[in-house]
Amino acid sequence: MKQLENQIAVVTGAGRGIGRAIALKLAAHGADIVAVDLKPEFVQETVEEARKLGRKAWAVAANVSEAASVEAAVEQILQEAGRVDILVNNAGITKDGLVMRMSEADWDAVLDINLKGTFLFTKAFSRPLLKQKSGRIVNIASVIGLIGNAGQCNYAASKAGVIGLTKSCAREFASRGITVNAIAPGFIQTAMTDKLSQEQKDAIIRQIPLASLGQAEDVAEAVLFFASPAAHYVTGQVLAVDGGMVM
């Protein structure tokens, strides 16, 4: 029997990159998958791949930054899937710029999706999870939330907020058997890093003791650990998957 057999996992931002890798990793280990993104077509490929692995899979649309949209999505998920055992808050964006030039709109957009979105999904699923007295919540933060980064004050603030939210929720939910943990990826090879010049990539790699960018699969493996029975006694933790960058 696979370690996540008969469990339902919700992954936000599951259409590509890290979110897609997480969804398919959980599916490969037995979980049925609810792939959430702004539009259902964004996650259709993820859903199809999960079904090829023999799992049930649903595509659900939600704007994670809008409470009404999240509440409607959660209601749909509970109706169609019946329950939820694992929630992975992965949806996130960047809108980089030096603080002196950053617009209020760019600040709000990043905080709304990265931090408020994590809060809204956690809040919406808290009641059913608390009622069933079990569940795993895994939030995707970032090493930038631990160390900051020039030109990313909005992103750093949002991810530092995710870490604080994780620790607070871990304390609130622990008495009901629900664990809440965060993963702080370093520089992972995705569509975002593919846009960097080779010179920029080389400069980043020089900061990483393992001397390479990470892969989405590396983050997915860490999520699998937190979602698995092996992590039943782990909560409120932040695991940096960063090649040693911030050790």
Question: Can you give a write-up of this model?
Answer:
The structure is a single chain. Strands 3-2-1-4-5-6-7 form a seven-stranded parallel sheet, sandwiched between helices. The protein starts with 7 loop residues before the first strand and ends in a 6-residue tail after the last strand. It is globular, with a radius of gyration of 17 Å. It has one domain (8-186, 215-238): Rossmann fold. The model has no long low-confidence stretch (mean pLDDT 96). It has 247 residues and is of the alpha/beta class. It has helices at 17-28, 44-52, 67-81, 104-132, 144-147, 153-173, 191-194, 198-205, 216-227; strands at residues 8-12, 32-37, 57-61, 86-89, 135-140, 178-185, 238-241. Helix 1 packs across helix 9, helix 3 packs parallel to helix 4 (104-132) and helix 4 (104-132) packs parallel to helix 6 (153-173).
Order of helices and strands: EHEHEHEHEHHEHHHE
User: Which whole number gives the mean pLDDT?
Assistant: 96
Structural class call reads alpha/beta
| Proportion in β-strands | 15-25%
Helical segment count = 9
What is shown here, in short?
The chain has 247 residues and is α/β, with parallel strands linked by helices.
